[in-house]
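Convert to structure. Protein one:
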Amino acid sequence: MKIPRDKYLQELQSVMHNGMIKIITGVRRCGKSYLLFELFKQSLLDNGVNEDHVIQVDLENRRSKDLRNPDTLLDYIDGHIVDNDMYYILLDEIQLVPEFEDVLNSYLKIKNADVYVTGSNSRMLSSDVKTEFRGRGYEIRVHPLSFSEFLKTGQYASELNALQDYMIYGGMPQIVSFSDKKKKENYLKSLFQGTYIRDIKERYNIRNDDDLNELIDIIASNIGCLTNPTNLENTFKSVKGHSISDTTIQSYLGMLQDAFMVEKAIRYDIKGKHYINTPSKYYFEDVGLRNARLNYRQIDGGHLMENIIYNELRIRGYSVDVGQVEVRTTNAEGKKIRKLLEVDFICNSGNKRMYIQSALDMPTPEKIDQETNSLRHINDGFPKIVIVGGLTPSYVNTDGISIMNVIDFLKDTEMGLL
C-alpha cells in the first residue's frame, strides 16, 4: 500500500540544492527509507532527473556491508559522479558508517552533489556533530503516521473506529498492511524487543538488560505522569525489590530518547516564566509500541489520548512543555493557601503560543470546571484549548476557551495558533 507522506516530501523538496546535508531522522521503521528511496526518488524522476544521477545506498542491507567503510563509501559515490550535472546522493542509516561526519562533509563543497541521509540514532544530531557539519546540516524529523495520514489508508468505516484502532495499535506504517489484530500485536511486540531493545543493547554494549526492561515497563505504565530519576529509583526499590542508581536510570532514559522511542516534556512555570527541570513527563513516540510493550494490559483512554495529542503537536512542529500555574486562594478557615494547577501542554512556535488541556470526557459541570480551572488562571492573550474525547461538537465557552473534540483536532492539520 502506498501511503503519501506529503508533509515530509514537501519539506524535502523545499530544501533541495540548499548547500546543506539533509538529515532525515526518526525511530526505526517509521518510514524514513520509504520517504527517501520511494517518494523522494520518484519525485526526482518525475521532475526530469535521470536515474543514473540518483546514487542510493541502503547501508542496513547486508549486501552493502563493504560500503559501511567510510573510504569505500567515498570511492563508490565518487565513481558514480561522471559529469557536471546535479547528482542526488541518498544514504539510508548513515550512522552505521564510522566517521560518517567526515564522509558527508566531503560533499559540502561539491556543487553538483545534493546529499540526503537517514539515521535512527540522535547521536548524529548532538552539538559536537553539528559543529562537524559547520552549521550545514538540516534535520527533517519523521514520525510514525499521524491520525490524518492513518485515515488516508481508507480502511475504516468511520473516523471513530479509526481512532479506536489508532489508540490501540498506533501509527507505525507497516501496521496498516495487517488486517488481523493478532498479526498487528505480534509485529509490534517483535519490533520492540527484536529491533529497538537489541539496537540499544548493541549500541551501548549492555549485557544484562533486566533493569532497562523494567524501566521501560515503568515508563510505559506511567505515560503522562510527572516523574524523575529519584522517583524511579524509589519505584525500583518498592516494587521491583532491588536498587538501581538514579545515575543509571538517567543514562537509560537518555538511551531511549537517543533511539527516538520516548520524548521528555519539561515542566514550565507559566507565571514565574522559568523552567523546572524536575519532575518531567515521558511520552512514547508511538502508542501502539507502548501498548504492545505492556501486552495490551493497560489501555487507558485518557493517558493514550494525551500521548497522541503530544505526538500530534510534535509532528506539527511545536515545542511542547508541561505547564504549571500558581494560584493563591483562601480556605474555609480564612487562611491563604498556595496551589499549583497543571496545564497539560504549553505549545510554542516562534513568538506564538497556545495552552492545551486533554480530557477524555467532561460529563458534568464540575468536571468542566476542573478541566478548565488552570486555563482560566492564565492571564495572557494566547489561545486556550481543551481537547475532549468522543464526538462532542467543538465550540468556544463563555471564558473564551475553545472546546474541541479530539477527532476534529487530529484532522485539522492546518490548525494554527487561534
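Protein two, convert as well:
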Amino acid sequence: MNSRPLRLGTRRSKLAMAQSGQVAERVREVTGRPVELVEITTYGDTSREHLAQIGGTGVFVSALRDALLSGEIDFAVHSLKDLPTAQPEELAVAAIPAREDPRDALVARDGLTFEQLLTGSAAPARIGTGSPRRMAQLNGWARSLGLEVETVPIRGNVDTRIGYVRSGELDGVVLAAAGLSRIGRIGEATELIDVDAVLPAPGQGALAVECVAGRPVDGVSGVDLASRLAELDDPLTRAAVTAERSLLAALEAGCSAPVGALADFPADGQVVTEMRLRGVVGTTDGKTLVQLSTTGPVPASHDDAMALGRELASEMLAKGAAGLMGERAL
C-alpha cells in the first residue's frame, strides 16, 4: 500500500498553520496516512493594502486552489469566511468540521469591555479592525448607547494587531474568537462580544477542507480522497454556514463587504428542530443598519439551507440593504 504522505496546503501564518495542523491530525486518524503541511503564500498575505481595497474575495484562496489543480497538494484548509461563495465545479468542499466559537473577541487595554472603553474617557476609544462589517456594527453599537467610538483600519497577524494595544497605540482590537482559541490565546480576550451586538462574518469560526472533485488517491481508481475527508464533516455546521453564505451570495456581496450573518440552532432541551438565521448590513459609520432574522426547520438538504439564506437576503434587500454595501461581488 502506498504510504506517501498526503499533502495539505495551508497559508503560512501562525493561525493558518495551527488550524491546518489540527485538521491534519484528524485526517491521519481517519485515513491512517501521514499528512505533511505544504506552506503556500497567497496574494492576501503579501499585499500591504487593506482587504476592502484589494477586493477581499478570494485573496487568501486562489493560490491554494491553483496548487490543488496542479497536483502540488492533495487538499487544502481554508478559513471558511475567506472562501468565495461561488464554488468551482472541479473542486469540492469535502468537509466542514464542527465550528469553533463564531463570535468576535475584544482585546482591550486594562482588561476593559467595549462599553467600559467608551465610558472611561472623554475622547472616543480607538478600536482597530480591518473589517468593514465590524466597523459598521461597532459604530452602530456605540450609537445605540449614545456614545462614540473611533474605528481604525488595521491589518496584520494576531501578534501585530494585539501589539497595537500593548504599545498604547490603540485602546482595543477586535479579532475572531476562534482564531485566538486555535493559537491558545483566547485568555487575552477582555470580552467575547455577544452576537446580539455584533454578528460575525458568514462562516466565521468554521473551516473548509477542499480537494479536487473525484481525484483518486495515488492514482488508484475507486479510492476517493473526498469521501475519506468527508468523515470530518459536521452536518449542522455545514447547514448553518451554507445558509449564511447563501445570504451573502444573494446580496451579491464579497467577503469584505459590511455583511454579518449567523445561523444557529435554538434547542428545546436536547432536541434541535429549528435553525435561526440572522443577517445584518450597514454603513461603516453605523448610522444605517438593516438587521433581520428568520427561522425554519433544520434544513434537510443543501438546497433547503440555500433557500433559507436567499429568503432572508430578499427581505433585507427589500429593506434597502443593497445601498449600504461598499463592495458588490462581480
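The domain at 6-97+206-233 is CATH 3.40.190.10 (D-Maltodextrin-Binding Protein; domain 2). The chain is about 30% helix and 20% strand.
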